[in-house]
UniProtKB/TrEMBL annotation:
Name by which UniProt lists this protein: 3-deoxy-8-phosphooctulonate synthase
Main enzyme class: transferase
Species the sequence originates in: Mesohalobacter halotolerans
E.C. number: 2.5.1.55
Subcellular location: Cytoplasm
Domain DAHP synthetase I/KDSA: from-to ranges: 8-253
Length: 267
């Protein structure tokens, strides 16, 4: 991936940004801050932002500012800061459209078993990030990875975002990291792992106070990358604000995580 920097630092790579693209100013503001931090800490960085949100609990939830408008903002982020970008897709026709604007296509956890969607993403030639379904075992992700490889592409990652064992919570089983690393580079989605879905209000809750706990565990267990949604004002974010990291806390968190990675690398 041409725009991915600091690849020789032996650090984890970082996928970070807002849950959804709410506008150009907010996207550029978040990207500028994260780029500054990751350059300082020599962390390979990919900007993340959903161009639309299709899997909402309620019909009146925010879904986006318009597909093309949001995708153009993602392109502007990439051109302004010379970083790769990632967005998720929800149907086969999204794949070719989004591939014109971003470097990585993400398959949402609820859709990772949808063969046509996975194959459409792979055939664009872009990197494909497969979110592990909350309902799937780490071992079962080998089949999703194989679908990408059978589509003549080795550009595939797996991202764990927790497993659902109850009605309104998720659990991260760290045994899944070495299991899925057998199939593809593995990312830990820290913030979505702390969601508390299916609330009676129809608005997903979260435990952002546990972000560092989960992130540290992932780094100690040699995860290849971390996925962190962040916003300068999570309380006013239009999507997933309850589990996002306040942008002001990101530098301190990443500084500590890099120190842990350096320690682990020394063993």
């Amino acid at each position: 991936m041409n725009k991915l920097k600091h690849t020789d630092s032996n650090n984890f790579f970082l996928i970070a940004g807002p849950c959804a693209i709410e506008g150009e100013d907010m996207a550029l503001q978040i990207a500028e801050k994260v780029v500054s931090i990751t350059d300082k800490l020599n962390i390979p960085y990919i900007f993340k932002g959903s161009f639309k949100k299709a899997n909402r609990s309620r019909i009146d939830s925010f879904t986006g500012i318009g597909d093309e408008k949001a995708l153009k903002i993602l392109r502007k982020v990439s051109e302004t800061f010379d970083v790769p970008t990632l967005t998720d897709i929800h149907k086969e026709s999204d794949a070719a459209m989004a591939a014109e604007y971003v470097d990585v296509l993400q398959i949402p956890a609820f859709l990772v078993r949808q063969t046509d969607l996975v194959v459409a993403a792979a055939k664009t030639g872009k990197y494909v990030n497969l979110k592990k379904g909350q309902f799937m075992s780490p071992e079962s992700m080998q089949h999703a990875v194989q679908k990408v490889k059978d589509s003549v592409s080795d550009k595939v990652w797996v991202t764990d975002r927790g497993s659902m064992f109850g009605y309104q919570d998720l659990i991260v089983d760290m045994r899944g990291i070495p299991t899925m690393k057998q199939y593809a580079p593995t990312v830990l989605d820290v913030t979505h792992s702390l969601q508390q879905p299916n609330q009676s209000s129809g608005v997903t809750g979260g435990r952002p106070d546990m972000i560092e706990t989960i992130a540290r565990a992932g780094v100690v267990n040699n995860v290849d990358g971390l996925f962190i949604e962040t916003h300068f004002n999570p309380a006013e974010a239009k999507s997933d604000g309850a589990n996002m990291l306040d942008l002001s806390l990101l530098e301190g968190l990443l500084t500590r995580l890099v120190a842990i990675r350096q320690c682990v690398n020394g063993f």
